[in-house]
Model the fold of this input.
Amino acid sequence: MPASPAIIVAMTLLAEDIIARVNTAIAEEFELDPAALTPEKRLIEDLGLDSLDSVDLIAALERAFKVKCPESEARALRTVGDIHQFVARLR
Done:
């Protein structure tokens, strides 16, 4: 049975909320423009983050979402979109 329109809207709002909260956490932690945080942006090449920043990134996500981020999975994050999907799976 297909999802009802109300469920689809709720899922879309949830996804939009995750994206907004992830982008806010990243922007605040690294003093970046939230408008620059599009899903295809690469963390190292485009945003200038380095391997040490990954620890701060995970801490910021854990604070923002009250979740524990498995370090092994977090190391595979390469783009802002990867982070959106990662957080959505944790919730």
